[in-house]
Amino acid sequence: MRILQSSLLRSVCAIAVGYMLVIYRHDMVHWMTLIFGALFFISGLISVIAYYVEKRRVQSAAEQWNMMMEMRSDSDTTAVVDRERAEQLKALVKPSYPIVGIGSMILGIILAVMPGNFVKGLLYTLSAILILGAINQLVNLITARKFSNIGVIYWLLPIVILLVGIYTVVRPMEMAALPFKLLGWGLVLYGIVECINALKIYRVRKQYLKMQQQLEEQAAAAKNAQEVVAEEVKE
Question: Does residue 112 contact residue 37 with C-beta atoms inside 8 Å?
Answer without folding.
Answer: yes
